[in-house]
Amino acid sequence: MKKIKMVLDWFANTNHTGFYVALEKGYFKNEHLAVEISGKVHGEMTTDGADIVVSPQPTLLTGMASGEKLLGVAVLTQRCDSGILSLAQAGVTRPRELTGKRLTHWKQDWFHKIVGKAVNDDGGDYSGVRLVQKDVGDIEADLGVAADATWIYKNWEYFVMIHAKKEVNYFAFADFGELYDFCAPGVTASHGLADGDPEALRAFLGAADRGFIEAAKDPDGAAALLAGHMPGWDPGLILESQRYVSGLYLDDAGHWGAIRPPRWNVLADWMVAEGLIPARMEREFTNEFLNRPND
User: How far apart are CA 72 and CA 65, in angstroms?
Assistant: First the structure.
């Protein structure tokens, strides 16, 4: 069995369901792969010698520019499911309305460049946003207390708040320009795996494709399976989230994972222009390892 170590961008949640379907139903095992999946802190990329690393594209590009030997090989959802969540009482329904409000933020420079552009281009003033450095782990406890708004993946924190019967506003960054429809979360492979055992990488992605297709077609069954990997979370919340995000997994061909080059390139080019990375790199992403046996 080929051992594959996978590090997620956060704790296991419905963004990752297809991997767990493939794990539980033996799709990885059928490919002679022993896959170990673990989660890490949201907003930071920690490879820890992993073969597969999940993280948002800006973090991946920054890591690659700093010497991380990673190659983008898939994207979890076919639209960037990321935006700003706030309690309805804060009155934040679009980027410019963050001006004067308390916004949690991560340390990365790209956070401020991306959110700042969205706020300023929408007629607001990012210098007037009251920044609170905090990785919100308990969205229900922190939102409205530590800050007025926070950047989230809709598939999870939004449904945490809805499930808690909170009145919230949410806007998707992708609604405000193609720049914001970047690959988040993106899936990368180490150069060691891509170059040293490309067939194992193809087998991994093929099994994941099968898992995500099943999660898209049967969100209720997938949610029940995922719940076993999310101890302490309400199965009803997982189900609500899964029914939503299952509609974002697959492309028009009915498969998971394909990275549309314009989607990747617009952000990568912009990051160079903004000085966030020094230059485009020779090896950033590819779809060549996607295994589509049903095509």
Answer: 13
